[in-house]
């Protein structure tokens, strides 16, 4: 599997209240500086690099104006060996999509759209600080189908303060009514440094874990009943429509990330870029200790509901998971958080909502 190419498009129309990703307004000077930086990073791409998946993430790639979006697609097409590409995803905010941008993406080779719907309730969207209304999402999906996209992913957020299980159910039903091939259900996290974190610190925003869990459990059942297979903690897909780029991350695969705040993992080395514009730099580089890397891969792979097969893990890391973390695995199994079969381990259903604590024991 792999490798992957990730391009961070660090622009958003406006910052959402809960978001800690690196992004700035798409001002022409910043966009020009970003393209110049991409050119610089291109020089460092490994010889013969031929990704199997490409991902435009952000930020909001579709916040670029049409001419810049065309330039980005051209940058990838002219500089990358695309002969092995099976999946090329672009993240999109419904408030920034137009039929012209969709046609550009489609003609350029993008074959998967990941649309950040988040909710279909306009009051909730407003509370989240989103720039779009539910009607924009419906229109975006219709336009994307018209443009020929056969792989559409929709993101929804659960556990937003002020929502109930009933309102979240309506969100999910509205998303499913658009027949997406892929659905991501993310839990609202209060990220440091965001307006939501400040509101929470001042006691103006309360997140109920019990309510979050109830919404997550309901979504799992509803999506499974509708034929969307639960394949990773937050992700559901119709058969064969899982996201290749994310599967690559979760199986410890190799990828190169370009752009500010992007990370890379290649030939036993990991590095990351600083979250800065107009100029970013490599902010760290580490040669990975094989055993530490194997522990991390163990945890990443357990995000997948299928978990790890013993042979698969050995092929990916060179280690046996029992030799690496046998005592912890046995303890977590006894606590009902891991399912241990003769040659496979995976998260137990009860652990899906508290996976972070399980992972902390294993890494
Ligand atoms: S559109 Fe996405 S990346 Fe931009 S601020 Fe909102 S959540 Fe963050």
Q: What structural category arises from helix and sheet content? A: alpha/beta
Distance between the termini: 23 Å
Name of the level-1 CATH class of the largest domain:
Alpha Beta
Number of DSSP strand runs: 15
Bound molecules: iron/sulfur cluster
**Order of strands across the widest beta sheet?**
7-8-6-5-4-3-2-1-9
Shape: globular
CATH fold-level name of the largest domain = TIM Barrel
Strand content: 15-25%
Uncertain regions spanning at least 5 consecutive residues: none
Quote the average pLDDT: 95
List keywords for this structure.
TIM Barrel, three-stranded antiparallel β-sheet, 13 helices, single chain, alpha/beta, nine-stranded mixed β-sheet, 363 residues
List the helices and strands and how they pair.
Layout: E1 4-9, H1 28-42, E2 53-58, H2 66-79, E3 87-92, H3 99-108, E4 112-118, H4 122-128, H5 134-146, E5 152-158, H6 165-176, E6 182-187, H7 195-201, H8 209-225, E7 229-232, E8 235-237, H9 244-250, E9 255-258, E10 263-266, E11 269-273, E12 282-287, H10 290-302, E13 308-309, H11 310-317, H12 321-334, E14 338-341, E15 344-347, H13 355-362
Parallel strand pairs: 1-2, 1-9, 2-3, 3-4, 4-5, 5-6
Antiparallel strand pairs: 6-8, 7-8, 10-11, 11-12, 13-15, 14-15
Helix pairs in contact: 1-2, 2-3, 6-8
């Amino acid at each position: 599997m792999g490798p992957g190419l990730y391009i961070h498009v660090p622009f958003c129309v406006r910052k959402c209240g809960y978001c800690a990703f690196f992004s700035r307004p798409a001002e022409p000077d910043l966009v020009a500086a970003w393209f110049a930086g991409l050119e610089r990073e291109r020089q460092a791409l490994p010889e013969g690099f031929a990704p199997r998946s490409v991902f435009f993430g952000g930020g909001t790639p579709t916040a670029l104006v049409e001419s810049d979006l065309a330039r980005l697609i051209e940058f990838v097409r002219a500089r990358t060996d695309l002969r092995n590409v099976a999946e090329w995803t672009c993240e999109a905010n419904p408030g920034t999509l137009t039929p012209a941008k969709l046609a550009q993406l489609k003609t350029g080779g993008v074959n998967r759209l990941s649309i950040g719907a988040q909710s279909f309730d306009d009051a909730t969207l407003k509370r989240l600080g989103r720039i779009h209304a539910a009607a924009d999402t419906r229109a975006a999906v219709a336009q994307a189908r018209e443009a020929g996209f056969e792989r559409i992913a929709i993101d929804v957020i659960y556990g937003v303060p002020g929502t109930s299980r009933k309102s979240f159910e309506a969100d999910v039903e509205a998303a499913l009514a658009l027949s997406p091939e892929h659905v991501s259900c993310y839990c609202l996290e209060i990220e440091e440094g965001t307006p939501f974190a400040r509101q929470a610190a001042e006691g103006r925003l309360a997140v109920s874990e019990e309510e979050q869990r109830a919404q997550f459990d309901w979504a799992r059942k509803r999506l499974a009943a509708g034929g969307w297979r639960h394949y990773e903690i937050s992700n559901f897909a119709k058969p064969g429509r899982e996201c290749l780029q994310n599967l690559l991350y979760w199986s410890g695969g190799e990828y190169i990330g370009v752009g500010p705040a992007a990370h890379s993992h290649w030939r036993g080395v990991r590095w990351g870029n600083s979250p800065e514009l107009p100029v970013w730099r490599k902010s760290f580089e580490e040669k990975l200790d094989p055993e530490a890397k194997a522990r991390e891969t163990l945890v990443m792979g357990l995000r997948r509901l299928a978990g790890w097969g013993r042979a698969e893990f050995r092929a990916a890391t060179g280690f046996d998971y029992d030799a690496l973390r046998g005592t912890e695995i046995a303890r977590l199994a006894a606590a009902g958080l891991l399912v241990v079969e003769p040659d496979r381990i995976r998260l137990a259903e009860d652990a899906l909502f508290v996976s972070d604590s399980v992972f902390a024991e294993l890494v």
